[in-house]
Amino acid sequence: MNKINFKEFKIPLGIAAKKWETRDVREEIADFIYTKMSGIRAHTLAHKIYDSEGLMELSDEDLKAVRVIFEQFAIGPYIDGLNAQLDTKDE
Predict the structure, then answer these.
(1) Element housing 5 (H / E)
(2) Dihedral angle sign, alpha carbons of residues 70, 73, 76, 81
(3) What's the rounded Cα separation, in Å, for the pair 25 and 16?
(4) Contact assessment for residue 33 and residue 65, using Cβ atoms and an 8 Å cutoff
(5) 8 Å CB contact between 84 and 38
(6) Residue 88 DSSP code
(7) pTM above 0.90, yes or no
């Protein structure tokens, strides 16, 4: 399982990533999924993120949906924040 905390989501404040800020992005990310993806799986995932209270587990399929949303609609700092939480690098 993949663990992500959307309530305390850290994003870099610049390309050098010297300073980071913690934000609650649950509603923002849930809204993207709710309004941009179709199907019951996306609907359920949006509510799961919105209702989360910290570190949450995502299945590989749910993580794939989150990545799709980030890749299509998120700005660079959010993508870097997601990758930092997952301890991955851009492909």
Answers:
(1) strand 2-5
(2) negative
(3) 22
(4) yes
(5) no
(6) -
(7) no
Residue 26 phi/psi, 5° resolution?
Answer: -55, -50
Q: Which two three-digit tokens encode residue 12? A: 């870099």
pLDDT for the residue 17:
94
Structure tokens at 19: 């300073």
Amino acid identity, residue 65? A
Q: Estimate the crossing angle of helix 26-36 against helix 60-73, to 10 degrees.
A: 90
**34-86 pLDDT, tens per residue?**
999 999 999 999 999 999 999 999 999 999 999 999 999 999 999 999 999 98
- Domain locations along the chain: 2-86
Can you read off the two tokens belonging to residue 67?
């990545």
The three state secondary structure string of 7-69 is: CCEEEECCCCCCCEEEECCHHHHHHHHHHHCCCHHHHHHHHHHHCCCCEEEECHHHHHHHHHH
